[in-house]
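User: Run a structure prediction on this.
Assistant: Running it now.
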Amino acid sequence: MSTFINISEASTIAIHSLALIANTERSLSANKIAEVTHFSRNHLAKVLHILVKHKYLDSLRGPNGGFTMKKNPTSISLLEIYELIEGELVSFECAITCGDCYFDTCIFGNHPHKFAGDFKNYLENKTFNDFKLNKVI
């Protein structure tokens, strides 16, 4: 199955985990995040390690340990985290360059390029302060 815009499980984990942690007053353990999100504990731990390594999160071991925000949630865009995990978000590129195409207008109506641009703009303009929990965790 092909997807139009690829949002991998790793970037989904990173973005949802940061949003959860940004919305809590206390630290959250990897086990608690896995319980709430239903992500694989092992995959979650790998992604959280990346976020700690890149100084988005602080990590404290022990019975009262867990993860807390290291950076201000208002200063982190979703695009920043998406690109940390996925690499640079690039616009749609047709397999046929415009100069080589036989048609006078784009067969795809330039929609893939527009959708990718809209998605990038959305991620760029949303921070982790823009989302609030609708349930207590």
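The mean pLDDT is 90.
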